[in-house]
């Protein structure tokens, strides 16, 4: 699977998901079946911090709960994991989750969560990224947005 790269129209924000990690995301969606799932995105920044590069896809925390139309990402073990990754210069980039058999559109709840993450000192990420995977195994769709200062900026696939 090829790498995918998304950019804002003004070129200020970008996201690179390497092909093997995108394949892993799709595998996790398939394993979830008809339930939503997700976790955090971890990585590094390049190009003067304008391009976020996903390097790690931590497992879904064990205290997460998902159903057909909702996902509440848990927190168990994340603090320790993020502290360990921080020492290796890998950082919290944002969140991903799966909308099974539905559009890859962020909900009002998703937007609220990301605005809260942007404002929270816990994440140390004033511009968190949200990746939504929708559709089915035969027809995947992705949407990507970043939340600088709580504002939503859509990123588009660069071809």
How would you briefly describe this protein structure?
By secondary structure, the chain is an alpha+beta fold. It is built from three helices and ten strands; from the N terminus they run ββαββββαβαβββ.
How would you describe what is shown here?
With 159 residues, this protein is of the alpha+beta class. The chain has a single domain (4-157), classed as Cytidine Deaminase, domain 2, CATH 3.40.140. It has helices at 19-32, 78-87, 108-119; strands at 4-7, 14-17, 38-46, 51-56, 65-66, 71-72, 91-100, 129-136, 139-146, 153-157. The strands form 2 sheets. The chain has an 8-stranded mixed beta barrel.
According to DSSP, the number of beta strands is 10
- Name the CATH class: Alpha Beta
Total of DSSP H or I helical runs spanning 4+ residues: 3
The assembly state of the depicted protein chains is single chain
CATH superfamily: Cytidine Deaminase, domain 2
**Structural classification:** alpha+beta
Q: What about the largest sheet? A: 8 strands, mixed, barrel
* CATH architectural grouping: 3-Layer(aba) Sandwich
In CATH, the topology is named: Cytidine Deaminase, domain 2
The overall number of domains is: 1
Biggest sheet strand line-up: 1-2-4-3-7-8-9-10
Whole-number mean pLDDT: 94
Q: Ends: how far apart?
A: 14 Å
């Amino acid at each position: 699977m090829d790498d995918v790269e998304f950019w804002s129209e003004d070129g200020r924000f970008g996201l690179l998901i390497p092909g093997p990690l995108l394949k892993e995301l799709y595998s996790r969606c398939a394993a979830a079946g008809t339930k939503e799932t997700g976790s955090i995105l971890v990585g590094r920044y390049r190009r003067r911090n304008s391009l976020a590069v996903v390097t790690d896809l931590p497992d879904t925390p064990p205290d997460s709960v998902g159903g057909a139309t909702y996902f509440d990402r848990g927190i168990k073990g994340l603090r320790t994991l993020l502290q360990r990754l921080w020492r290796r210069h890998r950082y919290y980039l944002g969140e991903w989750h799966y909308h099974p058999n539905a559009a890859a559109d962020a909900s009002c709840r998703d937007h609220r969560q990301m605005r809260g993450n942007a404002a929270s000192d816990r994440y140390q990420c004033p511009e968190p990224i949200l990746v939504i995977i929708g559709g089915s195994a035969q027809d995947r769709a992705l949407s990507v947005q970043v939340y600088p200062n709580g504002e939503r900026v859509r990123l588009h696939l660069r071809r």
